[in-house]
Amino acid sequence: MEKTVSEAVDYRRSVRIYDPEKPIDTAVVKKCLEQASLAPNSSNMQLWEFYHITSKETIQKIAPFCFNQNAARTAQQLVVFVTRKDLWKQRAKANLAFMDGVFGKNNPKSEQSSREKVARNYYGKIIPFAYGDFLGIFGFFKYLMVIVMGLFKPMYREVRSSDMRTVAHKTCGLAAQTFMLSMAAQGYDTCPMEGSDTWRVKKLLNLPSGADINMIVSCGIRKPEGVYGERFRIPFEEIYTEI
Fold this sequence. Notes:
By secondary structure, the chain is α+β, with helices and mostly antiparallel strands. The protein contains ten helices and four strands.
């Protein structure tokens, strides 16, 4: 029986040791990744890819690149969450193509609704402005421009290439968290691992230079000793402020 959202949040722990006698269903993990693809993301650009590793041989090759963490060595399966900022043009075109289906294709501007105009302008002009760059030069001038314009009105200021890379990683992190909660709802365990040799993982998976490893998530069924003690959190009163 699937857990509720609250039950899944409470159940989820970062599990470091998995039971080798309890395999997990690849189809269920794939379904959880499908749910991860529904995660909120910046401008609906979906600049992510999910590499579902079910091959034991590949897991054995990746484990040393994760510094032989128990969570990697004992994993039944792995998921490598990858950001693809370099695919921004393709993703923008995909959103525009989706709008063709929603609003109709090649509508004259005079016949477009205000909603359609805003959406097409966003993906046709604003997204290229935000993501477009050349050796960091265009990003630097964009940054100077928003500083000046920001003196007179509120501005979106994260316009450099490094800023957009951060945006892609934040987005991918939302997908990873959605995946881990979906897995918890199925009674499956996970552990997000940021500690890895990302260059070697990219080479092993034959990823292009424009791809970045966001995190590697190990998957399996926990052993009792796989949860390292009671959950510790800073008192909520210290991190919560109502304004």
